[in-house]
Known about the structure:
Blueprint (H helix, E strand, L loop, with lengths): L1 H8 L5 E3 L10 H28 L6 H30 L3 E3 H34 L4 H4 L2 H19 L1 H7 L16 H5 L7 H34 L4 H9 L2 H23 L5 H26 L1 H19 L1
Antiparallel strand pairs: 1-2
Amino acid sequence: SRDHTNNELQIWHLHFVLTGIPGLEKEYYWMALPLGFIYAIAILGNGIIISTIKSEASLHIPMYYFLCMLALADLGLALCTLPSMLGIFWFDYKVIAFDACLVQMYFIHTFSAIESGVLVAMAFDRVVAIRNPLRYGTILTSGVVCRIGAAILTRAVCVVFPVPFLIKRLPFYRSNILSHSFCLHQDIMRLACASTRVNSLYGLIAVIFTKGSDSLSILLSYAFILSTVLSIASGEGRLKALNTCVSHICAVLIFYVPLIGVSVIHRFGKHLSPLTHALMANAYLLVPPVLNPIVYTVKTKEIRRKIIQIFTRRKITVQV
């Protein structure tokens, strides 16, 4: 019968084809070098922050422990996308195995959820530092910081855990061409040849439980911070208190602006060009790991000093 013939032709895909930047395929050779440089900044920058906080005893305080967690999440995000991005732009290799794609998707969404949770923890840290400066050390002890870190990790791992299994049960036998240089849940889901209502619903619940609640928690934290800052009598005191939040505000904007942009484009931007989709997705995953170390290096003199020491030591070694 015709239905039987159709069923025989419905061969499930064992791999997906990744897309680089549509319309710029001829420029990949020239884009490979800056892309490698961007990844080098992300990996070196976050690596320096982690090693500085580990080696400098003066930085063994909650604020910098949370910064270390943020750098680890950024490092994870960068390393998740590195193989497929460099594979496309350096070697023109676009094929990724189905299971490898699910693994990459899992880690991208997990590290993204970890980063979101860490930004909430950093906001809480700033609330405690500004509202209760005298009790800061007793409220945010090393034990409390460890428990917060464990809670952030557990939440991210558990919330994203069902997603690959929900994708695995779907049939894929029509198109297997993804619209990005890496695997994202929304992107894989749209290629399925069956109802994706359960996936969409779970994806929405997961986003509300992680990034939705996190963004509200950060806004609430800053409402507390502003009310406290406005009650400070001296203008100099207000500026000093707000200055301690500048780096964190930048980190929040660096993470949430591309995230909101890519979410809006996925939901309402189906009429937009594939180039817009690709650039927004790349910004969502590459901007935080690259810019966060730059922001915190500019604002933290201990980290600046460590970088200067590294480069001056190398210079002396080269001269000798």
